[in-house]
Amino acid sequence: MKTVLIVDDEPASRYALRRALESRYRVVEADSAAGGRSLLLSEKPDLLLLDVVLPGEDGLSFLKWLRAEGYDLPVLMVSALDTAKTAVEALQLGAADYLVKGFELEELRQRVANLLKLVGLEQENETLRRRVATEGHFGQMIGRSAALRKAFELADRVAPADSTVLILGESGTGKDLLAQEIHARSERNGKAWVAVNCAALPETLIESELFGYERGAFTGAAQQKKGRFEQAHGGTLFLDEIGDMNPVTQSKVLRALENRTVERLGGTQSIPVDVRVISATHRNLPLAIRDGKFREDLFYRLRVVTIELPPLREHKEDIAILAEAFVRLHGARLGRTPRLLKEAVKALENYDWPGNVRELKNAIERSLVLSRGEEIGASDLPEEVLLGASVVPKGGGDGEDLGLKEKDFREAKRKFEIAYLLRQLAVHRWNISRTAATIGLHRQSLQERLRELGIRRPGQETPEDEE
User: Does the predicted TM-score (pTM) go above 0.85?
Assistant: First the structure.
């Protein structure tokens, strides 16, 4: 049975309200805001009937306190004051409904029933959302592995909290999709969503993009322009690849986060901004801090909550359901009903996907476009998937597989040469003649060097030209 708390200083009014509701609900009463506050803790009511005029702390002040403390139970304001101003103020403070005394008791019962029904539906939706997140769906993201479910659950919990979030993960893991879904599940949904790719903007432009500028601030600034912080006012600002931001801009972003104000280039006025910041990076930020490339204080300011998305090679059990989803997506767009054969799924699961989910999605689209029928077999997949050799060797970005961390020069040179030749061969689908022509070697010289380095095409004893 649901519990209704009545807070009203008039005994006759409380009696009438209780008699109207006690056949359907458990009713508890208080004659002041202080008494109501005490019963909130002990009785945990499902709905509050609150009088506007109370001795000491009035009903509107009590309502304001309720919302500030995080109580989300519905509040039905009851008052003898038939003024629009009071009703509007109550609704703005978070009241769910407003009744003027003199109402019919049946109307009261109906209002209470509707509010409790709405609460039940909201709780049901919340339960459903959490179940969907744990079962492998989070907005546009799909995955049933333990690692992804953990990320989805954490994102779902932090979404309504308005906290700053840092999303970590390799390129192509879906950091932008996760950020968008956090925004969609927050109180800021429906407000501005502004995304900035810090890696895509030149150092000379990123500051003006984020903070805007005044007319005449620099050559070409013909008129005033609002920055992304101002554009995102009331909503969410997504700073993608924040690990690529230069130190000067980092300090200004830190100041904006701490002071909740920005200053346009060429301006002197501090402009208040109400923005939730979600950032993402594929960089190792602690390493960047150690190398003096990223501010430690900004790092701690951004990572109030940290969510890490695993690379696809670490949750290969999700490849099959992701691939099927992409087949349906691209098939619908092309007006087709294709299906993946088991041999194709097995080949997809055997590949390491250095480009992660983005690479998988693109590979499925390519296979679907080039396939002759409605069945996609292994032969329709990109060759690097079949061969298990990426076009771009893993770790090349940090120099780990290129030999740059080797102390011995000859070993470093050998590793670099292997990585370089593997990349060129993959680009040219292991065609020796085309590869040799591209890198400026004779075909026989390249073959000799491949033998010396022990480089063989997967599945063959020696490299051969493709016909």
Answer: no
